[in-house]
Amino acid sequence: MQRGNLSVPFRQLPAIRHPVCNGQSYPKYQCSPPVTSSTPAQLTLNDFSAGGDGGGPSECDGNYHNNTENIVALSTGWYSGGSRCGKNIRITANNGQSTTAKVVDECDSMNGCDEEHAYQPPCKNNIVDGSDAVWKALGLNEDLGIVDVTWSMA
To answer: What pLDDT, on a 0 to 100 scale, did the predictor assign at position 2?
Structure first.
């Protein structure tokens, strides 16, 4: 590119490859919103058992888990490289019910649409992916699949 007497070389940036599931491209997220005393999030339903829709074993301990446990996976930014593994968070639903759950996994916001991720797209950056037990403790209808909640460190 010429600008007056200055010559600025054109530099091509590397292409960002977005995961593609069934022909649809999905964004990647490295960061999540800041964690506060009442962090807005979307609660999704996850099956943490072997063969469940959670894909492979949990990132925190390499194990599958029983869905009767109050457990969650957090979006990549909130998972924070595993720094929240084994810690409890408090989740509050819009119906006023709240519960605590242990962080056992990452809801991968960077990768997806492959066998490791049960062919599911990457998580958004604001996901708390809860077990059946979490949904039941909050008095929520699992058929909804996704609901607005808030969460904080317990």
So the answer is: 40
Selected residue with higher pLDDT from 28 and 147: 147
pTM over 0.90: no
Residue with tokens 């009442």: 38
CA dist 53 and 120 (Å) reads: 8
Of the candidates 150, 129, 153, 149, the one whose C-alpha atom is nearest the C-alpha of residue 65 is: 129
Amino acid identity of 140? L
Q: What is the dihedral of CA 58, 40, 136, 57, to 10 degrees?
A: -10
- The enclosing H or E element of 134 equals helix 132-137
Spatial distance between the Cα atoms of 72 and 85, rounded to a whole number of angstroms: 10
Residue type, 118: A
CATH number of 36-153: 2.40.40.10
For the ranges 8-17, 37-46, 75-84, 120-129, which has the lowest average pLDDT? 8-17
**Measured in whole angstroms, how far is the alpha carbon of residue 126 from the centre of its chain?**
7
For β-strands 146-153 and 39-45, DSSP reports them as antiparallel
Rg (CA), the chain: 19
pLDDT level of residue 150 (50, 70, 90 thresholds): very high
